[in-house]
Specification:
By secondary structure, this protein is α/β, with parallel strands linked by helices. It has two domains: 12-252 and 455-476, 3-Layer(aba) Sandwich (Aldehyde Dehydrogenase, Chain A, domain 1), CATH 3.40.605; 256-445, Aldehyde Dehydrogenase, Chain A, domain 2 (3-Layer(aba) Sandwich), CATH 3.40.309.10. The protein has 16 helices and 20 strands. It has helices spanning 13-19, 46-65, 67-84, 86-97, 106-122, 157-170, 184-194, 210-218, 231-241, 266-278, 298-309, 330-345, 378-381, 397-404, 420-427, 462-467, and strands at residues 26-30, 37-42, 128-132, 137-144, 147-151, 174-178, 203-205, 222-228, 247-251, 256-260, 288-294, 349-352, 368-371, 388-394, 409-410, 412-416, 434-437, 452-453, 456-457, 470-476. The strands form five sheets. Strands 12-13-14-11-10-16-17 form a seven-stranded mixed sheet, sandwiched between helices. Strands 7-6-5-8-9-19 form a six-stranded mixed sheet, sandwiched between helices. Strands 3-4-20 form a three-stranded antiparallel sheet, with no helix packed on it. A hairpin with a 4-residue loop joins strand 3 (128-132) and strand 4. It is globular and about 60 Å long. It starts with 12 loop residues before the first helix and ends with a strand. The chain binds nicotinamide-adenine-dinucleotide. The site of nicotinamide-adenine-dinucleotide has 31 residues, from helix 8 and helix 9.
Length: 477
């Protein structure tokens, strides 16, 4: 059984107190592992949004005028501020989002937030000379867009907020953040820590639901929306931003395939497969969500995966031993539950898990592996976004590639093989923004990341990510 260990109260209570509203409407935020109250979040209105946009507009010219070197220095200090409050930020994240402190979870996320901020602050971006024949000299510069809106999801709330705001700030824009209504405290805390360093009005936050998100994405003073979330909301944002021709970076939903070739060592890849699928208890955009395994090695891979999966402790995230947590909200629990029940009803074989306790106070869904499942089953075709992995058998690589490419999303994918050459040949045939070889889902601040098909458009990270937060201007002459 999981035990709750005593967490020193001052780890996060001071920061929580700092972000607790002293006026206006508030909403209780409950811990998804226990149902206990974590804190109170403000409920901002459209008028609050207008005020935040006005503050951002007022602050933008001076922020842009600081230039790259000074902005970078301030962003590095903001990363130091995150590091100094890392434990408090991680505890708020664990209590609100549910992910454990340990494993590739809350502390890892806070570390990622500070790391990405440093990378955005230090990546060089020089004007590019694109043509010079001695007569014509053409250079491309990247000017600030103005005010950027950042709308985020609830799965990696702090890290994704940094992915959105760090390049925006570095490039001389000011920002209005609209976090998910499920995880506002994690993002309020992060913004509060960063704002210990940044000038007034540069980084603003408005807490609200979809109406506030929609108003932000239609706002005439916003030049660009950085959006991470579901494909259906992405489509709504395209529509609401159309009248003002906003620039958009859309990181949308995925249903990543992994293809295991027959030449692997099952025991050697099992842990990589496990974390590829179950990182953040499956609530990750580019997690492995459908696994295609060659018939010759199918039973061995399923067995090796079951061995690893059954050894990973799930429970309350503040317990240091746990590496898997609850689903973040009831709606997500219900999606996973519905999809696994549909798989069971179809005759698929549940190798592990699949029997949640629906009466418990937390939204824990047990680690679940479903084998001998058809490719057209809903657990395969829909994004489960939780700890339930379908494992599909194939006998011919062309068939596996066709199944991997059979959906209208294409965020990530992976190929697992003893031969990198062979894996690369298969990778080239897969319709996805990133194809990993012998791993799944790893991201790096210098490696561009983005989706194919309806998983979105626009690249984040590295030089490409910085460029996408600027307006390209050609100086010709
Ligand atoms: P969601 O689309 O429900 O919500 C995301 C954000 O959009 C929230 O802040 C929400 O308030 C806001 N929103 C809702 N309606 C809006 C509207 N009409 N206009 C503007 N904003 C609106 O997504 P979610 O459930 O929070 O996140 C899970 C989804 O996000 C999954 O599909 C996952 O794959 C995807 N995701 C993608 C990436 C990526 O990098 N591609 C990363 C993380 C999550």
């Amino acid at each position: 059984m999981n035990r709750l260990i005593d967490v020193p109260a001052d780890h996060h209570t001071a920061l929580l107190t700092e972000i607790t509203p002293t006026e206006g409407r508030t909403r209780q935020i409950l811990d998804p592992a226990t149902g206990e109250q974590v804190g109170l979040a403000p409920e901002h209105t459209i008028e609050d949004l207008e005020a935040a946009v006005a503050r951002a507009q007022a602050a933008q010219p001076a922020w842009a005028a600081l230039g790259h070197a000074e902005r970078s220095a301030l962003l590095l200090r903001a990363a130091d501020a995150i590091d100094a409050k890392a434990e408090a930020l991680a505890h708020i994240l664990t209590r609100e989002q549910g992910k454990p402190l340990n494993g590739p979870n809350a502390r890892f996320e806070v570390g990622g937030a500070s790391g990405w901020l440093r990378a955005a602050a230090t990546t060089p971006l020089e004007p590019e000379i694109v043509f010079d024949d001695g007569d014509t000299h053409a250079e491309v510069h990247y000017r600030p867009i103005g005010v950027v809106g950042a709308i985020g999801p609830w799965n990696w709330p702090q890290m994704i907020t940094v992915w959105q705001i760090a390049p925006a700030l570095r490039m001389g824009n000011t920002v209005v953040v609209k976090p998910s209504e499920y995880t506002p405290l994690s993002v309020l805390a992060l913004v509060s820590v960063i704002n210990e360093v940044l000038p007034e009005g540069v980084l603003n936050i408005v807490v609200g639901g979809r109406e506030v998100g929609a108003a932000l994405s239609g706002h005439p003073a916003i030049g660009k929306i950085m959006f991470t979330g579901s494909t259906s909301t992405g489509k709504a944002i395209i529509r609401s931003s159309a009248d003002t021709v906003k620039r958009l970076t859309l990181e949308l939903g995925g249903n990543d395939a992994g293809i295991v070739l027959p030449d692997v060592d099952p025991a050697a890849i099992a842990e990589g497969l496990f974390w590829g699928a179950f990182i953040n208890t499956g609530q990750t955009c580019a997690a492995l969500k459908r696994l295609y395994v060659h018939d010759d090695i199918y039973d061995e891979v399923v067995e090796a995966l079951e061995k690893v999966a059954s050894s990973m402790p799930m429970g309350v995230g503040t317990d240091e031993q746990n590496v898997l947590g609850p689903l973040q909200n009831r709606a997500q629990f219900d999606i996973v539950d519905r999809l696994v029940e549909a798989a069971k009803a179809s005759g698929a074989r549940v190798v592990l898990g699949g029997e949640p306790d629906r009466e418990q106070p937390g939204y824990f869904y047990p680690t679940t592996l479903v084998a001998d499942i058809d490719n057209d089953n809903a657990l395969v075709a829909e994004e489960q976004f939780g700890p339930a992995l379908p494992i599909i058998r194939y006998s011919d690589i062309d068939e596996a590639v066709t199944m991997a490419n059979g959906l209208d999303v294409g965020l990530g994918a992976s190929v697992w093989s003893g031969s990198r050459e062979r894996a690369r040949e298969v990778a080239a045939r897969i319709e996805a923004g990133t194809v990993w070889i012998n791993s799944h889902g790893g991201v790096h601040p210098m490696i561009p990341f983005g989706g194919a098909k309806q998983s979105g458009y626009g690249l984040e990270f590295g030089v490409e990510g910085l460029k996408s937060l600027g307006v390209p201007q050609v100086i010709n002459g």
